[in-house]
Design brief:
Elements: E1 2-10, H1 23-36, E2 43-49, E3 52-59, H2 66-86, E4 110-117, E5 122-130, H3 138-146, H4 153-156, E6 164-170, E7 178-184, H5 188-195, E8 201-208, E9 214-218, H6 223-227, E10 237-241, H7 249-253, E11 261-264, E12 270-273, E13 275-276, E14 291-300, E15 303-304, E16 308-309, H8 315-331, H9 343-346, H10 351-358, H11 367-373
Parallel strand pairs: 13-14
Antiparallel strand pairs: 1-3, 1-4, 2-3, 5-10, 5-14, 6-7, 6-8, 8-9, 9-10, 11-12, 14-15, 14-16
The structure holds 1,3-dihydroxyacetonephosphate (2 copies) and magnesium ion (MG) (2 copies).
One magnesium ion (MG) binds next to loops.
Length: 374
């Protein structure tokens, strides 16, 4: 049976700065979906990660479906009304356009979708990250789908041994979707050369080469490309189908034990470790640290089980402690060097005005200046 998994998420307002949405806001989003799901959705789940609200939906209408996207958009508009009434910070933050037109892509909300032939059992994972951007998933996806040190299935499963196809997007291109397809393992070094630059080249999807089935869909939107200025980080969502011809759930989760440094945290402008957290967790330290949650689901004919909280397991407590240590270690050097993002990432913030103001106050000293004066 063909089923579409769609997850659309937005930051539409938060308590106490950029921490987490309020319960009334979530209730308004849920009420709107429940009142209008009939005839459009098979099932849905609403959750939050940091200050981002995600609507996970199953249906039969394919990817990019206008009525599904509009349903999510309108639910976020309803939530924004509550955010305004409650005086939440950043009410409607990610709704960058005034009116819905066809598809939420390019309008602010993040979207990850895939149409699949539902397997007799269909385990999948829904990841949501806050205070970071889509490149945060580059390292975990590389390790899971291309490195047998992380994924023994690449050696042990004949289907997985055929490798995976990566679709990688250049998210700096604003004229359209600039993408490249590369296959592992043959083109491993090409994949690595791109993915190391996680602010520019982002994994959009991953496919089984044995069967052609899609395993991964990542939201790739870059808000500053839409708004032309800093409007919050591009907190991404991702869907990953697991088991059978795909990596096992544990092989998909394993890389998050690294708590790798990602772009994000305070003002979207720092390098901070990615902390795996439980479902519906807010942010705290230094507007972060960047956090990732993972809801595991089974699905049958588009009907979802309850979510299982993949990072609630006691194992991840040790990782969280390490992530906190890594976060504090990086913060000791404030804005210097690797702690703050490169200028190319900061150019959408107010620092450009400061640099423009300082530019004319520079003087060239010595012979060169005398030559200039002569
Ligand atoms: P099962 O045999 O329980 O499906 O587990 C296989 C597997 O993938 C474990 O990593
Ligand atoms: P969000 O993108 O999660 O709203 O965070 C914005 C920010 O600048 C936090 O410091
Ligand atoms: Mg926010
Ligand atoms: Mg956010």
């Amino acid at each position: 049976m063909k089923i579409t998994l769609s997850v659309i998420k937005a930051d539409i307002g938060s308590i106490g700065g950029h921490i987490a949405p309020s319960q009334p806001l979530l209730a308004a989003v849920r009420a709107h979906i429940e009142a209008n799901a009939q005839g459009r959705l098979i099932d849905h789940r609403i959750s939050f990660t940091g200050d981002d609200v995600a609507i996970l939906m199953t249906h039969r209408r394919g990817v990019g479906d206008e009525s599904v996207h509009k349903l999510a958009w309108d639910a976020f508009v309803a939530g924004t009304e509550v955010a305004k009434r409650q005086g939440l910070y950043g009410a409607g933050q990610d709704l960058l356009k005034d009116a819905f037109s066809g598809n939420v892509k390019g309008m602010g909300p993040a979207v990850a979708e895939m149409e699949i032939d539902e397997r007799p059992n269909e385990p999948f994972l829904f990841f949501a990250a806050d205070k970071t951007d889509p490149g945060a998933f580059n390292l975990p996806l590389y390790l899971t789908f291309a490195d047998p040190m992380t994924t023994p299935g690449l050696i042990l499963s004949p289907k997985m041994a055929k490798g995976f196809r990566f679709v990688i997007m250049d998210v700096n291109e604003t004229s359209g979707d600039r993408v490249i397809e590369l296959v592992a393992p043959e083109q491993l070094y090409d994949i690595a050369a791109l993915l190391r630059d996680a602010e520019r080249y982002v994994v959009e999807s991953v496919w089984s080469r044995a069967t052609g089935e899609q395993s991964v869909a990542v939201a790739t939107s870059r808000l500053h490309n839409i708004a032309g200025k800093y409007t919050g980080k591009d907190d991404p969502v991702m869907l990953v189908r697991t088991q059978m011809n795909f990596p096992a759930t544990g092989e998909v989760l394993a890389p998050y034990a690294t708590a790798h440094y990602v772009a994000g945290g305070m003002r979207g402008s720092h390098n901070m470790p990615l902390m795996p957290v439980g479902l519906n967790t807010g942010t705290s330290y230094f507007d972060g640290p960047p956090l990732v949650s993972c809801a595991a689901y089974a699905m049958h004919e588009g009907r979802l089980t309850d979510p299982l909280d993949a990072f609630a397991h006691p194992f991840w407590d040790a990782v969280r402690t390490r992530a906190a240590d890594k976060a504090m270690e990086m913060r000791r050097q404030g804005f210097f060097g690797a702690a703050m993002l490169a200028m190319s990432e900061l150019e959408y913030t107010g620092i450009m005005e400061k640099l423009a103001e300082l530019g004319p106050r520079f003087r060239i000293r010595g012979e060169a200046a005398e030559r200039k004066a002569a």
